[in-house]
Amino acid sequence: MSSLSLPPLPDNLTVLGCGAAVVDLLAAVAAYPKPDDKIRTTSLKVQGGGNAANALTCAARLGLKPRLISKVADDAQGRSILEELQADGVDTSFFVVSKEGNSPFTYIIVDNQTKTRTCIHTPGYPPMRPEELSESSLSSALDGTRLFYSDVRLHETALVVAEEAARKNIPILVDAEKKREGLDDLLNFSDYVVCSANFPQAWTEAPSITSALVSMLLRLPKLKFVIVTLGEDGCIMLERSLNESPETEERDIDSLVESLKQRKHNDIAIPTCVSSSATKVRANGIGTVNARLFVGTAEKIPPSEVIDTTGAGDAFIGAVLYAICTNMPPEKMLPFAAQVAAAGCRALGARTGLPHRTDPRLASFLH
């Protein structure tokens, strides 16, 4: 499928990210080592990583124009982080480069048997301080930006950017992977949240994932939608509905999600999505919100093709950034993001398998 047959992209495709840019040292092993073992790798890769850097690399390959605010040291690893991002079309001119110290890096053990990845991270030093991003730099970083995205690393700097983005009415997406310092402040500014499977209940203390999503929409009045990614079980999205029709019947969120799961296309390998109509969604003991519920499936990847799940969540977010910028409806966005994430799982490293916009596997979603 040539790119000529794809529809033209909208004008404003600039997204700004703030967060982690690191070097990943990936070691694939036949089975996870026991304490005091000596084992050999089945393959090894050194590649750029970090949530924000991965998600923006994904977004760049899909056709967006990403800018990243982050910090590295002036060492070999720092230089390779910048060069790799630049080669993928990510604007690194807003990076802070410290003369001394070390750039951040992560050891990743990829277990071929259980298809899991274990990360051991060493932060960069010295850490980034908000005052290292000058006012003029912040202003030009946000100039013409369609969307701001934070992975909640460098949270003090991210908060300064989020406050200014909100002042300029630039929407904000937050990657809520787990409870960490500065997250609550960023969530208060967020228009969109994408979170990991464990986060909604950990943050809200609600009895189920779906009731936790209701709680998040009630606690964060600015929030337009929240998506929880569930790995091979796909994803669930709750989107706030603005039409307050008084005759809409109330539906219990847990029974609503079960009824949608009955309609899921479990026999189809490619990702799909089913949705409710806009309704009053109730979570017992939590409250009621006008919303639409979406249940998305993941691609059913043959086990032999799953190489490494590192960065699958970042790829999903990169695709969601693209979907928001191109006004893709949710029922198309969720399968598209799942397809992009699945492509990334078929190669070692977070970025190796990330598809380009012209990838034939994406053609059906882009028309």
Quick structural gist:
The protein is an alpha/beta fold and 367 residues long. The protein contains eleven helices and 17 strands. The N and C termini lie close together (12 Å).
Task: Please mark out the parts with pLDDT under 50 across 5 or more consecutive residues, or reply none.
Answer: none
Count the DSSP helices.
11
Query: What does the average pLDDT come to?
Result: 95
Q: How many DSSP-defined strands?
A: 17
- From the N-terminal CA to the C-terminal CA, the straight-line distance is 12 Å
Helix fraction by DSSP (H/I, runs of at least 4)? 25-40%
User: What form results from the Cα inertia axes?
Assistant: globular
Structural class by helix and strand composition: alpha/beta
The largest β sheet comes out as: 11 strands, mixed
Radius of gyration: 20 Å
Note the run of SSEs as H and E.
EEEHEEHEEEHEHEHEHHEEEHEEEHHH
In oligomeric terms, what are we looking at?
single chain
Strand content is 15-25%
Tell me what the structure shows.
It comes from Vitis rotundifolia (Muscadine grape). Keywords: Kinase, Transferase. The mean pLDDT is 95. This protein is an alpha/beta fold and 367 residues long. The protein has helices at 51-62, 76-87, 135-142, 155-167, 183-189, 199-204, 209-219, 253-262, 312-325, 330-344, 363-366; strands at 14-18, 22-29, 43-49, 65-69, 71-73, 96-98, 105-111, 116-122, 147-150, 172-176, 192-195, 225-229, 235-240, 250-252, 273-275, 279-283, 287-296. Helix 5 (183-189) links the parallel strand 10 (172-176) and strand 11. The strands form 3 sheets. Strands 1, 4, 9, 10, 11, 12, 13, 14, 15, 16 and 17 form an 11-stranded mixed sheet that branches. The chain has a 4-stranded mixed sheet with strand order 3-2-7-8. A two-stranded parallel sheet has the order 5-6. The chain starts with 13 loop residues before the first strand and ends with a helix. The protein is globular and about 65 Å long.
